[in-house]
């Protein structure tokens, strides 16, 4: 998968879900492997399940649910899951972490820019005094 494809999937996550996925990846608490065919511990989810509002306990139902939530075609999610399951090395984790961190960085930069534009500006006392003198 390309970084753009990963970004297309994970940029749909809410901020809190994104942060938890980043944290869980950093701690090695993300499911990998054949989790689609068997139930996993509730605390260890695949990367996509981190963005879902509910965990349905059934991998097939979760995939359909995730496609609905993120408005993704099933092929896109299936391609990610195949990539995630079949890339048996640490590079996959690092690559996903890099993409997720870039999404978080972009959102933070956007939020900071909005705050700078919408923040109330301090009153210039001298200018205010001159305006009052004219009145």
Largest sheet report: none
Distance separating the two termini: 66 Å
Note the overall shape. elongated
Record field, number of beta strands: 0
Number of domains: 1
* Uncertain stretches of 5 or more adjacent residues: 36-40
CA-based gyration radius: 22 Å
**Percent range of helical residues:** 55-70%
Count of individual helical segments: 6
SSE order in H/E notation? HHHHHH
Average pLDDT works out at: 80
Classify the beta-strand content into a percent band.
Answer: under 5%
**Structural class label:** mainly alpha
Structural notes for this entry:
The protein is an all-alpha fold. Helix content is 63%, strand content 0%. The protein has one domain. The protein is built from 6 helices and no strands. Helix 1 (3-10) packs across helix 5 and helix 2 (15-27) runs antiparallel to helix 5. Residues 36-40 have low confidence and may be disordered.
Task: Tell me the layout of helices and strands.
Blueprint (H helix, E strand, L loop, with lengths): L2 H8 L4 H13 L31 H12 L3 H13 L3 H29 L6 H10 L1
Helix pairs in contact: 1-5, 2-5
């Amino acid at each position: 998968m390309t970084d753009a494809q990963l970004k297309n999937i994970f940029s749909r996550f809410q901020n809190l879900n994104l942060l938890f996925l980043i944290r869980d990846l950093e701690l090695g608490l993300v499911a990998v492997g054949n989790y689609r065919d068997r139930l996993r511990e509730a605390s260890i989810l695949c990367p996509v399940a981190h963005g879902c509002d509910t965990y349905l306990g059934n991998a097939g139902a979760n995939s359909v649910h995730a496609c609905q939530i993120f408005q993704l075609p099933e092929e896109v999610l299936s391609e990610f899951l195949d990539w995630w399951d079949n890339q048996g090395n640490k590079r996959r984790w690092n690559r996903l972490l890099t993409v997720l961190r870039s999404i978080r960085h972009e959102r933070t930069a956007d939020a900071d820019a909005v705050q700078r534009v919408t923040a109330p500006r301090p009153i210039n006392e001298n200018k205010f005094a001159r305006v009052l003198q004219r009145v």
